[in-house]
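All the exercises in this workshop are built on plain-text protein records. Instead of coordinates, the fold is spelled out as a row of discrete tokens. Once this layout is familiar, the rest of the handout is easier to follow. The record below serves as our worked example for the rest of this section.
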Amino acid sequence: MPKPNDGPFSVMIREMLTLVDVAGLFVDPVFYGMSGPRGNGKIVVVIPGLFGSDLYLQPLHKWLRCAGYTPVESSLNFNAGCLQRLSGQVLDQISSHMNGDSSSIALIGHSRGGALAWALASHFQARVSHLVMLGSPVASIMASVESGKPVTTPHLGQTSRALMRFSSLVRHALDPDCDYPRCGCAFVSDVTRPLSPATSILSIYGRDDLIVAKEAQITEGETLEVNASHVGLVYSPEVYRAIGKFLSCTGATENGRKAGMTDLREDPGL
């Protein structure tokens, strides 16, 4: 069901409070790599959400670098339009950074970027050791692909419906030949294909997210709910700690995708 205060004004007010999240992040030791496990230089590709670019993700990039990882920008200047075109652009960016290296990589996607991250993880299969999705409506996108039509179910709030309509208008303007979700392109195939058992999955959602409804959230792998809004997820120290702990795990096992993840909710730092 929609949240009771999911209108545009309520969403705008809540997302403006993201400035508080940013201020809290900048004074938290985790942001400077002073707490939590250290990385091993693994490449971590970070993908922005709807209408976003790599610019607003720079704090996440800085933290990944401080924590011992190698962050890679998506190269997307505007995440809108044909998902196959965008997926191909990020794929080319990853390939150029890998330069023939066969090491595993990690993917982090915010909002719509989580769907792109899932499709790329499906494409690379076992090459992706960790997949993190922040406030991503992956379940809705999968349902849309499987039904062959946009999701119009009642659980979507008015702000979410408005964003979907605007996204569709922008897609028709930027990519008039795109017939998603009936096109049968590589993205459509990838986003509905199961991931490799070797890929660990973490989905993080905000309790104050007025944009992505519960019904739109993916449930495969490990899920975590934190005190954050939709955009605030990108700047939450709690999210950074969870990602740091998740990336430090070696990967999924035959016993499921939750190996090493059961400690997330028990960590006193979260």
